[in-house]
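// run 5 | inverse folding | seed 20
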């Protein structure tokens, strides 16, 4: 109980309570995360099950529009799929890909950043030039090339089965330089301090020094980067799915739903693409606002609370 009281009374929580934008952003992000987690419970139907689809229910408008059906609060798409269910499951897929892609980015970035900053010399030069080359090409371009090659080489069926894994790996590998450069900069400052020299004197190996002593002192910027990178990964997944190189129509993410409804937006069925687009925008905005607040709070020179 005393530990909980200490957390609630901390400066971090105090600043959070004083910032209404941070509170709203956190509440919206948490609501989306919870809705994604509870998608099977909250959804009126399983949009991934073809047996539950009825083509006779296709393109029913939302309940507040003329012709709407109370059984489909947000309407249906061209396949008769309930839009509320599709959005909840799509949200689940998009957030899952975003989180796991950031985990891949973080793992690669931390290892490469620690090695570059601590070892220096040719190791540092090699990884930083590799990072420069990768940063010169956009994440979307690299992902399009990699996914298109995989789809052409192994076929659309295998690509659909491995879509989530491929998206996580491609987006994760394409974005590691963000973490590596940040960790490297922190390591360059930390490796000259007395506690690192003391660790060397007592005979600790370089991997042990990097893992136990330097890494814990470089983690605070990673929290901010990770928050922003989750939003970027979700955007990248949505863009790839919109282009037909992401999730298949049988397991749609938010990007797939937007892409599937785009052909109907001018025919009057605006909700098929508009509602998933609004959900995606609100999700990305709330995550970015939360990341901006974390950046300001964790950097005393920027915080104006």
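// decoded
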């Amino acid at each position: 109980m005393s530990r909980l009281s200490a957390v609630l009374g901390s400066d971090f929580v105090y600043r959070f309570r004083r910032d209404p934008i941070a509170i709203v952003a956190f509440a919206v992000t948490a609501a989306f995360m919870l809705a994604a987690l509870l998608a099977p419970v909250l959804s009126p139907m399983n949009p991934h099950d073809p047996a539950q689809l009825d083509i006779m229910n296709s393109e029913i408008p939302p309940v507040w529009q003329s012709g709407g059906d109370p059984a489909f609060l947000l309407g249906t798409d061209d396949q008769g799929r309930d839009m509320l269910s599709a959005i909840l499951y799509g949200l689940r897929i998009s957030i899952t890909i975003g989180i796991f892609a950031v985990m891949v980015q973080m793992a690669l970035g931390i290892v490469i950043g620690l090695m570059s900053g601590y070892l220096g010399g040719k190791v540092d030069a090699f990884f930083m030039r590799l990072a420069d080359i990768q940063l010169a090409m956009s994440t979307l371009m690299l992902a399009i090339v990699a996914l298109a090659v995989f789809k052409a080489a192994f076929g659309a069926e295998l690509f659909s089965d491995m879509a989530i894994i491929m998206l996580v790996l491609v987006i994760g590998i394409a974005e590691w330089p963000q973490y590596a450069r940040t960790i490297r900069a922190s390591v360059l400052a930390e490796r000259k301090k007395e506690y690192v020299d003391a660790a060397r004197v007592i005979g600790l190996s370089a991997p042990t020094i990097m893992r136990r002593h330097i890494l814990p002192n470089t983690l605070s910027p990673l929290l901010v980067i990770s928050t922003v990178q989750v939003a970027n990964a979700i955007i990248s997944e949505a863009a790839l799915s919109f282009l037909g190189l992401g999730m298949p129509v049988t397991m749609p993410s938010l990007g797939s739903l937007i892409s599937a409804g785009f052909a109907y937006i001018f025919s009057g069925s605006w909700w098929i693409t508009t509602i998933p687009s609004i959900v995606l925008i609100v999700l990305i905005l709330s995550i970015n606002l939360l990341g901006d607040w974390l950046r300001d709070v964790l950097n005393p020179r920027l915080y104006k609370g």
